[in-house]
Each structure stands twice: as structure tokens, then as C-alpha cells.
Design goal:
2 copies of one chain form a homodimer. The first copy, chain A, is 30% helix and 30% strand. Chain A is α/β, with parallel strands linked by helices and 374 residues long. In chain A, the strands form 4 sheets. In chain A, strands 3, 7, 8, 9, 10, 19 and 20 form a 7-stranded mixed beta sheet that branches. The first copy, chain A, has a 6-stranded parallel beta sheet with strand order 13-12-11-14-16-18, with helices on both faces. The relative contact order of chain A is 0.15. At the A-B interface, helix 1, strand 17 and strand 18 of A face helix 1, strand 17 and strand 18 of B.
Chain lengths: 374, 374
């Protein structure tokens, strides 16, 4: 049985044009250990949007092509073209993760036929995806593809932050952009596991989102007393580890310095080197693309660095990764539930006005693609 | 036998005055496992100067007291007083390291009597220092106290950088403020051990100092082509580890970004996260006290952090530390030889004009104290 599958592609040409289109592909019979998944729901994660749009200027988005084969183009600003060199003139497949129903299965994978599964193997912005049976993860009965679409990136990132905390012997966490989908999930996870979490947000609305799900420590970086409140919350929780989605500017440095100030207030240390207790800042996103500024008041026992989920999963190894995945499958409708701002068909996702909306990556907003929707 | 010992003290009063003075102390008989060292030579390291002067304004230095009991004072600027809170109104002893002759020894330490030894146990700005026999390190015959005065801080820091490189599986190094006493020593060590070292300096004179001792890779941060030359030198050596004495400003970030650019030039990686090869920046000094700026072009596989010798020795443990010390003792007149700008008696070291000279901590300048000199 062969399936005809439309898939969403992104290409940046050597002339500096972004081109989004739908390409038809045929997906043939699965091998003995393979399955074909009808992809019903796949999220637009920030990392997907980076791949989809590159550094294109969304103000130049324009629609062309026909009704069922829309093509959308945009210009890449001259000074940002160098960063796209590695992908120029390649039509990229997209979509880190998604969920759907197994519609064909090889002889060794017959038990999966008809079940709802998730996959995180990439190329999910397609109607039908052939995958190794070992790359799909079935859900307990009753879980829908919409509920299971975001089973990898956010749940494993939240679990990865907690497992990093345990591995590196910290006892509490600080998180920025804390009202994001991921941030909300991290709060539910920390509440479930009894871990103290300091949430850093940028608005009163975001404070409210987190208060409603039961967060205990919320500080607003736009408050005049922000540094004082941050230092107090860090002092109460004893957090010496922070995950920062903002990346650029002074926020990460303020957090490390607040940790140092809180440690010195508890245990004054003479001499110029500050507290010997190690403080760690991990930057896992770059909402602010300016340089990261770290002040001298962080002391000497500090570390800052990039954090990416694949590097972390490599670090903990396949056995530990499998434990995290099993927990996600069990708690996908509770701890790891995602909510979406709106659901989009492929045609809707190529609409310039819609792209400008999801391209903002506003905190707390998240969009779901329905490749087989009309 | 009791020794009368003058020692150099530094106190910062609650009124914001720095006060340097000589205090008389009597050093009594050593216990069975102890020795008394007549301290002949002890260096003014940057870390000693931090303790000696604190954040005092050297323009306000003034001499008082009598000829053989000079007292020197200076003002601590109002806005810097908070950083001195942990030491206020305490008369601090000083001097991380030094060398001298064992002039008295307990029954279990008689073999040390008359030998030239070094010690790194602190409080060496004194004429006679009582120490545990296990805290002194005898030199091979013929080594003078002047030659042995700097046996800990610089030699162990240079060896510690190389041992960090091996421990964290890097294969070459970048070093800033590279024409310093430490930087020259690191070059001799890397040449001896066949390790590639990229030296970052700030002037043509500093380039010349390093060229004379045989350094292969020297880049000048004041050259218009600095970033290009730095990237080329990093590419040639494959360095993914840097030790930075400057700390503040953009230099550390430029080095990480040059490592990333060099890695991507060798192995282009599609996608927004850059090279997966880990790049490490260690900040071990703060010649520039402004914030450290790290640009987005460092990619995601990077880490930056404080590096201090005591933390490193704790990390490698006592057995490995002992191996490093033994090598220093064997090579103190060759690989780990220090040279000094000038030698100072206690009285000379308290002279305001002299303090202003050594207080600048100019690269390549280093001063030696002779506590028993006249």
C-alpha cells in the first residue's frame, strides 16, 4: 500500500530568498520492522520555527502558487545571509516531533497497527511518515494525537532540567521566560516532585498564569525591586542552578550575581574571590540575540554555558532517556499536557499573516499543525 | 630558642582607611614535627596585592610612623567600601608563598635543618615563620631562596592549566595577558611538553618578549586584523580551551567565537545551533573589572567559568598535586624560573611611590620582598 503525502518544505536560495512550499511524495510499504504513521498533530516549536523561517524578514512575506499548492516567499536581509550558508539551495524537511495513528506496519510491528503513537525522529511536517518501529512510542488507551503531539521537546526538556539539577548536585532551580508552555510544564513537574523553582517573568499577566497553576516563587524582571526580590527568592530556595531562555543581555548575569549575593549573605567569605559554592547558568534559548553580560559580582565559583536537549540526552545515555520517555507517556494528559493557541492546516500555516503571528514566538503562545486537516 | 619577627600587616578600618604596618611578633620553639623558616624571599603576586591594598585609591597613599616602624595609609573610595566588609578592622597577615632557610627544627624534622625550602601555606610576609614540616618543600642543592620564592602560585597555575587541558580532553590552549611572568612560564612549559599555545598580548613589546622565548603563536589584540589572526591561530592549533586573565570586556567572548568560527570552517553544520564541539573559557583573573560579554556567535556547545588554583588542586586531589610540586622543585631554575623587576625590603615596600609602581600590576613586572633585607 503506497500513501501519497504532502510535506512542508523550507528552502533558502543563494539569491537570499526564503521559499516555503508543499511537496508531494509517495511513501511506500513499510519494511518488516517499520511502520507508517498518519501524522495528525505536530507542534510549531521555537526550534522548528528557526528552521522554517531562518533569519527571514517576516515583513516581506508574500503568497503565490495555487490554492492547494501554495508557495510563500520572504527576503533574507543581506547582513544575515552568511549564517544560512550551510543550508543554501537545499529543500529542508521539517518538524521535530508529532503524533498520529499507525496505518501500516511490517510483519514484526503488527501490534502497533491502529494505535496512537508519538515520534521525535524529525520530518513530521508531512501527512504520512515511515519510521522504524523502535522510533515510535505508543500511548495508553484514550490519548489523542492532539494530546500527544508535544511528547518530546518540552517534556524531555523539563525532565532534562530536573535531571541536570540532580546530576550536578543542586537542590533548586531558577527558570526564565517562565510562563512559556515549557515553563508551565516545568512548574507542574517541580510541584509533583517537590522541587523548589524560582520563576522569572516579564509581566503581571505572566505572573498570573503561573500563580494559577500553583507556582510559589514568581519574580517580575520589570519590577523596580527585581534584583532584591530575585535575591530573596534564591535565598529562600537555595537555588544555585538556572536555565535561561533569554540568553542575551544582563538577565543571566543578574541571576548568577543574586546567587552569589545570597550565598555571601548566609556565609560571609573574606578575600577577593567570593563564595566557593558553585553557581551554574545554562542558556538554552536566545530570545535576546545580544551579547550575554556577566558582571564581576558573580564571584569566581561560577559557570555559564549552552544547554541543548540532545547534548543532555547523550550525556545521560539511552537507558536513562528511556525512563524519561516512559514517564512522559504515562503523564502526557497531566504533568506534561500542552495547550495550543490555535490549530493550523498546512495551507493556513503558509499564510503570511498567520506566519507573522506564530513567528513572534510570544511567551505562552504555541501553535499546532494538522497535516491531514482541511 | 625564640625569634623576634617583624611581619607586614594590612588593615582596613571601619572608617574606610587602609593601614599598612610592621608588627613585631615572637616565634617560639618548633614542636616535634615543626620547623622555623627564616624567610629570605617572597613575591608580590597579584593575589597578594589584592589582599595588601584592597580597593584603596593609591593616589591617597601617605607615609607616617618612624623609620623602622613605618606606617602607610590610603583611603578606600566610599562606593567600594561594601566589598571590604568581611575584613574590616582585622589586621591581616599576608604573603601566599616564599622561600628561606630552616633555622630551627623539632626532633622529627632535624634533617631539614639548614636546608633551603619553599612554603605556600600563607603568612610569608614575615621574617620568621613556624610551619609544619609537611608544609615545607626542600630544593635540590644549590637552589637559592630568590630562585625558589615563586614555587607555588605561578608554577602550579601553569601546570594546572595543562592538567585541566588533559582532564577535559582538549589538545591545545589559548592564553591572554600572555607576556606576564605566568604567561612566559606557560610558554616554557608548553614548549617542553610539546603543547600548542596561542598567546594573546596587547603590544609589540609583549610580542617581542614571547618571540624571544620561542613562542610560535602570538596574536596582538590591538592589531586591526586581530579576530582574523586569532581565528587562524586557533584553527592551526585546534585549541578549544582558553585561560583568560583579563576577565571583563569582549576578549573572552571573541576567543570562544573564534573557536566556533574555526570549527565551522572545518566542519560546516546546518541548523541554528552551530558546532557540537565543546569550547571552554576559564576566567582566572580580572585585569578588566567590567562585565564579561559573550556574543551569540559562540554557538551552543560552550562553557565559561571562573578558574582558581585551589579549586583545581582540590579537584585533582593530593596525590596528583604532589606530582606537580615535585616537578616544580626539579625544574625551578629552568622551566619554572621567575625573574623580578626589583627586590624590596619591608621598609621599601611601604614607600608610597614604590607601592604605586607595583600596584599597577603591569604585565611582565613582578616584585620580590626580602623580609630580612636591610
Amino acid at each position: 500500500m503506497t500513501f501519497t503525502s504532502l510535506e512542508l518544505r523550507s528552502e533558502i536560495t543563494s539569491a537570499g530568498e526564503l521559499r516555503l512550499s508543499l511537496e508531494e511524495r509517495s511513501v511506500d510499504d513499510p519494511g518488516p520492522d517499520e511502520v507508517v504513521v498518519r501524522v495528525e498533530a505536530t507542534p510549531l516549536n521555537p526550534s522548528d520555527l528557526n528552521q522554517l523561517l531562518g533569519p527571514a524578514d517576516v515583513e516581506t512575506l508574500a503568497a503565490s502558487g495555487s490554492g492547494d499548492r501554495p508557495v510563500t516567499t520572504a527576503a533574507i536581509p543581506e547582513h544575515l545571509r552568511a549564517m544560512t550558508a550551510a543550508r543554501v539551495d537545499q529543500s529542508l524537511t521539517l518538524g521535530v516531533e508529532g503524533a498520529g495513528t499507525v496505518v501500516a506496519a511490517g510483519v514484526s510491528a503488527q501490534d502497533l497497527l491502529g494505535t496512537v503513537v508519538s515520534a521525535g525522529a524529525g520530518q513530521m511536517y508531512t501527512q504520512y511518515r515511515k519510521l522504524a518501529a523502535s522510533d515510535v512510542f505508543p500511548f495508553p488507551d484514550g490519548v489523542t494525537p492532539q494530546q500527544g503531539a508535544s511528547s518530546f521537546v518540552n517534556p524531555l526538556t523539563a525532565l532534562g532540567m530536573v535531571s541536570t539539577m540532580r546530576l550536578e548536585k543542586h537542590s533548586a532551580l531558577v527558570h526564565t521566560a517562565a510562563a512559556s508552555n515549557l515553563g508551565q510544564m516545568l512548574n507542574k513537574l517541580c510541584i509533583a516532585d517537590g522541587i523548589e523553582l524560582v520563576n522569572v517573568v516579564r509581566s503581571a499577566e505572566q505572573e498570573e498564569i503561573l500563580r494559577e497553576i500553583g507556582a510559589s516563587h514568581i519574580v517580575n524582571s520589570t519590577d523596580p525591586d527585581f534584583v532584591k526580590e530575585l535575591t530573596a527568592a534564591i535565598g529562600e530556595t537555595g537555588a544555585t542552578l538556572a536555565f535561561d531562555a533569554v540568553g542575551g543581555g544582563g538577565l543571566g548575569g543578574q541571576i548568577l550575581a543574586a546567587m552569589e549575593a545570597s550565598l555571601l549573605a548566609k556565609n560571609p567569605v573574606p578575600g577577593p574571590y567570593g563564595s566557593p559554592v558553585r553557581k551554574q547558568l545554562y542558556i538554552y534559548g536566545r530570545l535576546d540575540r545580544s551579547a550575554t553580560a556577566l558582571p564581576i559580582s558573580v564571584g569566581m565559583a561560577w559557570s555559564a554555558g549552552g544547554w541543548l536537549l540532545p547534548y543532555h540526552l547523550y550525556r545521560i545515555g539511552p537507558e536513562e532517556t528511556q525512563k524519561l520517555r516512559a514517564r512522559v507517556a504515562d503523564e502526557i494528559t497531566t504533568t506534561f499536557a500542552s495547550s495550543y493557541t490555535s490549530e493550523l492546516t498546512f495551507a493556513e500555516a503558509l499564510d503570511p499573516a498567520t506566519i507573522r503571528r506564530f513567528g513572534r514566538m510570544a511567551t505562552g503562545e504555541k501553535y499546532l499543525l494538522r497535516p491531514n486537516g482541511r
